[in-house]
Specification:
The chain is mainly alpha-helical. It has helices at about 10-20, 25-40, 50-55, 65-75, 80-105, 115-120, 120-140, 145-165, 175-200, 205-235, 235-240, 245-250, 255-260, 265-275, 280-290, 295-315, 320-340, 340-345, and strands at about 110, 110-115. About 45% of the residues are buried.
């Protein structure tokens, strides 16, 4: 039975319900992933379980487990190995969020106080480390070493992306290529691994596995650009997380990089100072400049370029209800991007 979206729900709850309706073909398997995640709490030391339960219990979208399940369904049956894979990639993802919130000094995540807000940075850093380690422990339980190797590689890439992004903070001359490389490492790598491993567990032929990997990478980049735009243009209550943290911590995202391309020299430095001060009155000026320079339209075009890249990879996959759902997920992210950036598109 499909999920019915209640119009009386909050915008955040409606968005979650819409996504769950989209993912209805894997609803039973997603429920198994959720149950398996809850079971993982008991695998930790008793003194740590309350912390683990808190960060795993948030109302995340579970996009990465969904990709692992859909890739499995696209290439054959969704097995118990895919359920475990869903748990693994979500553990890695949540670990990165815990660490991100420490770096960004964020107070809100999934509508709840972050772990660093509740318990401080020290516990949060160690908590993220515990989640990473447990994910690799689960990955090592497969009869093949490929899962552990691919998860380790993706985790390494994600962390390296975070290091590069931290190195590039406040760098006004950051190139678009560097920005795209960083978000591919931060987000595309784990999206790609989720899809790739979903096919590998079914023994899918190399061309299919490669297409799954390409789909996940392109989707991850498109999604991260959208999420970066939310940090600038979204509303905190609707997003369910602290917004404006990217600018506050000196992280230049696509709309700001595109805006900075319109100026040079001293003007760029002056604009950069205004952006990084992030004061309410000046923030309104920056947003106005973004809307008046075609930046929102160009941001949307960039998102759509990667969505199109994912669509090309998708066209090379077996056609069934699961690959169709991957296509619907692409449309979902594209539509959310258009709604967020509609001011410039309408203009």
């Amino acid at each position: 039975m499909g999920v019915v979206v209640n119009s009386n729900l909050s915008s955040t709850d409606r968005e979650y319900a819409s996504l769950m309706k989209l993912l209805d073909p894997i609803a039973p398997e997603l429920a198994r992933v959720e149950d398996a995640l809850a079971e993982q709490v008991s695998a930790f030391d008793a003194g740590v379980t309350d912390f683990v339960h808190y960060v795993l219990g948030g109302s995340g979208k579970r996009l990465r487990p969904s990709l692992a399940l859909l890739a499995g369904g696209t290439t054959g049956e969704i097995s118990g190995g895919h359920i475990t894979l869903g748990v693994i990639v979500e553990l890695v993802h949540v670990a990165t969020l815990v660490h991100d919130d420490v770096l960004d000094e964020a107070d809100l995540r999934h509508g709840l106080p972050t772990s660093n807000y509740r318990w401080g940075n020290e516990i949060s850093v160690l908590l993220g480390d515990c989640l990473f380690a447990h994910a690799l422990r689960l990955a090592a339980s497969y009869p093949t070493t490929v899962v552990c190797r691919k998860v380790s590689e993706a985790t390494n890439t994600v962390c390296a992306g975070e290091i590069l992004q931290t190195q590039k903070r406040f760098e006004l001359d950051l190139s678009l290529d560097n920005y795209l490389e960083i978000i591919n490492m931060k987000t595309g790598a784990l999206f790609a691994a989720s899809c790739e491993l979903g096919g590998l567990l079914n023994g899918a032929p190399p061309p299919v596995v490669k297409s799954l990997q390409g789909f996940g990478s392109n989707l991850g980049i498109a999604y991260q650009i959208y999420d970066d735009c939310v940090d600038l243009f979204g509303q905190e209550r609707q997003a369910g997380k602290s917004l404006g943290t990217d600018v506050k911590k000196g992280k230049l995202t696509l709309p700001l990089l595109l805006l900075l391309q319109h100026v040079d020299g001293a003007s760029r430095r002056e604009l950069g100072d205004i952006v990084f001060r992030n004061e309410p009155r000046e923030r309104a000026r920056v947003l106005s400049a973004i809307m008046g320079n075609g930046v929102m339209a160009e941001s949307l075009m960039t998102i759509e370029r990667y969505i199109n890249g994912a669509a090309v990879a998708l066209s090379e996959l077996p056609a069934n209800v699961y690959s169709e759902t991957l296509g619907t997920l692409l449309s979902y992210i594209g539509e959310k991007s258009r709604l967020l950036l509609k001011e410039e598109v309408v203009a």
